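PROTOCOL LOG
Step 1. Enter all chains and additional molecules of the complex.
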Amino acid sequence: MRPSGRAPNQLRSVTLEPTFNKYAEGSCFVKFGNTHVLCTASVDKKIPAFLRKTGKGWITAEFGMLPRSTHIRNDREAVNGKQRGRTQEIQRLIGRSLRAVTKLTDMSEIQIKIDCDVIQADGGTRAAAITGSYVALYLAFKNLISSNVLSVMPLTGQVAAVSCGIYNKIPVLDLDYNEDIACQVDSNFVLNGIGEIIEIQGTAEGAVFTKDEFLDLLDLAQQGISNLIELQRNVLNL
Amino acid sequence: MRPSGRAPNQLRSVTLEPTFNKYAEGSCFVKFGNTHVLCTASVDKKIPAFLRKTGKGWITAEFGMLPRSTHIRNDREAVNGKQRGRTQEIQRLIGRSLRAVTKLTDMSEIQIKIDCDVIQADGGTRAAAITGSYVALYLAFKNLISSNVLSVMPLTGQVAAVSCGIYNKIPVLDLDYNEDIACQVDSNFVLNGIGEIIEIQGTAEGAVFTKDEFLDLLDLAQQGISNLIELQRNVLNL
Amino acid sequence: MRPSGRAPNQLRSVTLEPTFNKYAEGSCFVKFGNTHVLCTASVDKKIPAFLRKTGKGWITAEFGMLPRSTHIRNDREAVNGKQRGRTQEIQRLIGRSLRAVTKLTDMSEIQIKIDCDVIQADGGTRAAAITGSYVALYLAFKNLISSNVLSVMPLTGQVAAVSCGIYNKIPVLDLDYNEDIACQVDSNFVLNGIGEIIEIQGTAEGAVFTKDEFLDLLDLAQQGISNLIELQRNVLNL
Amino acid sequence: MRPSGRAPNQLRSVTLEPTFNKYAEGSCFVKFGNTHVLCTASVDKKIPAFLRKTGKGWITAEFGMLPRSTHIRNDREAVNGKQRGRTQEIQRLIGRSLRAVTKLTDMSEIQIKIDCDVIQADGGTRAAAITGSYVALYLAFKNLISSNVLSVMPLTGQVAAVSCGIYNKIPVLDLDYNEDIACQVDSNFVLNGIGEIIEIQGTAEGAVFTKDEFLDLLDLAQQGISNLIELQRNVLNL
Amino acid sequence: MRPSGRAPNQLRSVTLEPTFNKYAEGSCFVKFGNTHVLCTASVDKKIPAFLRKTGKGWITAEFGMLPRSTHIRNDREAVNGKQRGRTQEIQRLIGRSLRAVTKLTDMSEIQIKIDCDVIQADGGTRAAAITGSYVALYLAFKNLISSNVLSVMPLTGQVAAVSCGIYNKIPVLDLDYNEDIACQVDSNFVLNGIGEIIEIQGTAEGAVFTKDEFLDLLDLAQQGISNLIELQRNVLNL
Amino acid sequence: MRPSGRAPNQLRSVTLEPTFNKYAEGSCFVKFGNTHVLCTASVDKKIPAFLRKTGKGWITAEFGMLPRSTHIRNDREAVNGKQRGRTQEIQRLIGRSLRAVTKLTDMSEIQIKIDCDVIQADGGTRAAAITGSYVALYLAFKNLISSNVLSVMPLTGQVAAVSCGIYNKIPVLDLDYNEDIACQVDSNFVLNGIGEIIEIQGTAEGAVFTKDEFLDLLDLAQQGISNLIELQRNVLNL
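Step 2. Run joint prediction.
Step 3. Record the structure below.
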């Protein structure tokens, strides 16, 4: 029995609110239950030095959590003077995931900076951030096409993410915080619109898991992500 | 004529949404028109070293702006490794303003940490932050009283803030971004519930102003803030 | 009765020693009683990026306090690895104040860097710093004119500053440290040579003040600053 | 055909040199072909604050690469003033992997700090670091048992790691640098002594992969890691 | 011929102004010609952790240069966020030099923090800093004895320093800036009151020197320092 | 009697292993007994700004100690976010020493970056680092000549270093850790191939020494360094 009463393969209520921000070229406010993340996509005419004169663009991401997005207030990273290791891990993952569905050579030496800021965290923040960032990124590209900066859509497919874990020995989809802190295995799956794998992370701190258990988690993820992909298509009218 | 079509003494539409955050002891999502600020008040049992064994509590504040809260994306302070001077100025102002209406000796060696995070900026961020933080702080204190941690309400009055300026030679209330970048004089007023002054800041970069002009601004501020005070009373049922 | 025995509207003994430093293009060692500040103005051929090719110049300021300029030794900011919030507030104020009396378009893409270093602090450090920096800046501009780098004096007027406060319920001019830590209201005024306002800051930590009290402080400031303006004229032979 | 001429399921020549360092409680110099990593395990009587008075111990890891461990010299992190995101990702992975085979409640509030420093990098640095760190950690625990600080061996099993990838469309084991930069899929597997999964990371930057491809990689990893486990047993006389 | 017209073995005009600072327990404003350094000695009841419960005290030093103490303005270290390597070298030297003439076991777990801040630099800053710091330190100790915190003077002798170099092939005493940048060999000598050596540093960037040349420099240093020792005795009435 | 049983003028066993690193243009693994240092020389086509368009090259050095190179584990500087003062002192010394035997005008606007990383420390780390770096530098220059980037060897001579000290009142050569922590005087000598002095550092913390004692140390250093110079010639076939 899950603390939330959900079925093992049941997502939390997920909503995607596009264009919540009046300045960003693309934006999306994503909620996975009580996990709330603001995602913006900002167009930057400057690309990293290693891409200059290559004709390629770039997508990078930054991630942050408001100090009181969590049960206990966390120190503000800007005050500490550095980002935590976990923050850097997540923002690198978001960037890789979005680049995996983008044809960089269609971006014409433009950089898109994704910002994912968690205003309330209840597990699955990186999954929500990836799922919402795709929407923000799509909208930013559409803006660049409307304004004739780009001529084709650089996105080659959709991308969404979900966490899965083994909780009370049962594989479950879309862990919330109560499950996250008590589960034996914690994994994150980033898949594209047709269920292929972009990124897999599976961790068993203080435990282990078998190949079969891992395949169960992957099955759950494929089910859940197909729903997220559908939701993205709805808000973007794809 | 103001860009927004407002009368010189007209506030933008202001809303205060208390308890937007499910974890914080007190919280308020404040909007001054298109300026949107999330305010949380977090109880911390540890007080600063200089107050230990004095029986006094403390209120401190931190301020941040999401990178794409602005027209042009700003660097993330956590990535830069330090807070900007402007950020520090504002968070110090928020802390002083709230302490000015709090009897620290009634706080029983508890610290409240205020976090104000701007998710969209259209001028007046510090004023909105102070106005919303008061609500978050009040709710946190009420929580501490309900749970018998405190026996009396440490707040001795209300506090709210607004910016005023001279725009096209006319004193106007509650500057938005278009006015802010074009005005000759920019000032911020922090007043208590009966119109007394807690903090005044007036700046004329590349210009000057007279005593009479300053008094006009103060008059506008007193009008505007009495409305903000009323709004606070409504949402808090005071 | 003031701790120093001064009348409420009496400045401390103020001295301005121009050209104390043999390298700087302009310099002034300013004393407000026991508050001693070294001010230098350094010409820099590089201007900030946002001003390149605009024909405009820039004035910026940095502020510091020697570790033992205070009663109790303060940590050295260079060792801590960052400037305090208060330091940043003050150096931003100094820069704004000087730019308010300078026609940047007459500076020909030159930057002047002001350094104010407090070697002994007894209240009013930012007021002394602004008052002395004006002298240093004037001398630097004169040097640039003598050497035919500039053709006209970019300064459009003088600027000086003083702090005022309400001490034992009486408005007093030019607070020293003993008054500063005990006063109900602390304010800083930056005025130009004809008494117009460039910057006003009034703070009542743990208290409030009325419009009339504020006007009393402004009156004191105008008196005091007219004396400082006169002193500047004397040392500069204006 | 692999650049090195190896068969798809062939490890590079792997050596483990225990106790290369005369001070550390445990140490191992590990080589995966031209990837050379120095691993030390240092006993620290201080544990992190969150574990005090719990009876539990802790294992943490730090990772670094000498500036010229790579083809092109990298900036020294100590000079830059911060660790890269990739560095933090790796050191967190090493710590989790070792804790997964350790019974922390048998460590008696002792902390072991693992340091992995790469002196030459040719792909697979994190895999080599984990494989070598296990040896260093085992030796440190044996030392603590010999000196009667611990009474039982806290390790509950072995742990080793290897990278696998899809290179020229063929799944291959133990990627070297030439394969790493050209492969479509890059994955790291951390397994225990009986082939169970501790951590899985699979990344397809600019590509995707299927479940079957992933299972092929896992198969390779299980073969390769069983060899590494055997090598560890040999040098430790298990 | 030296640029200043001095004889090879001639010091610049040296002055020591004790107690220039009204707060510090000991202070001295030292001038070696146009090199001007403010030295303060601050008593700190907290000693470094490694000395707690040993009965020993400690002396540490910090060094800084005002940004425009030099011909060309230097960046402010507090703005850069770190001290330069040269700064750290010098402050470590000052601390060692003073500890060499102090019986730490007579300091009763008190720490003295020396601050040396250069307000104008014309060569020989570290030598001036050491020479002036001794005076500040002596005065601080005298204060501690007067106030019965210490019962005996912990200083076991005097210490002073001077730079020497080979300029135009001739060994000269007390290099000024013009000599410093042009000399073949640059050395610093720290000697005690009877000419014994506490610290020697000799550097030949882009050149070399012989034992005999070095002995010539040492001879000059012994002459010069005996004068500095005498000056210290005069201002301290020893 | 020395703890190691060596004669007063006896070096530890010294070995120089050239080209230990497969990527660096020059490298040397140097051992002075149990002090083990990895030295690499990396060619960098970018030179510091102050040398652009001068036709000159540059040599710079960075130094580091692995956390467990010492008896007690030291904090990792990259984690602390800054290099220690001692580290900076040493890396500046290495750079100066190598530049002293290099004709920078023969380097053709190329920079060589030396990295010295201590993997085990038993006293004399800076001396070993300088001695080994010379070998790495020589090899890098030879590479640049072979590849026709440089036409002449910029090195004008050899350089090596050793520490000497007064231990139990006897001058001894090449201090190991046990002697280092117990000696009255600690000095480092950097000499060229014919015994001339490049750099001298002598320190007597809590003690003093005389000219004659210093000359004894210099004599020892000249003996020891002539052996190191010979060793360098052997491995480089000079």
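Step 4. Note key features.
The CA atoms of residues 1 and 110 of chain F lie 48 Å apart.
Chain F touches chain C at residues 81-82 (CB under 8 Å).
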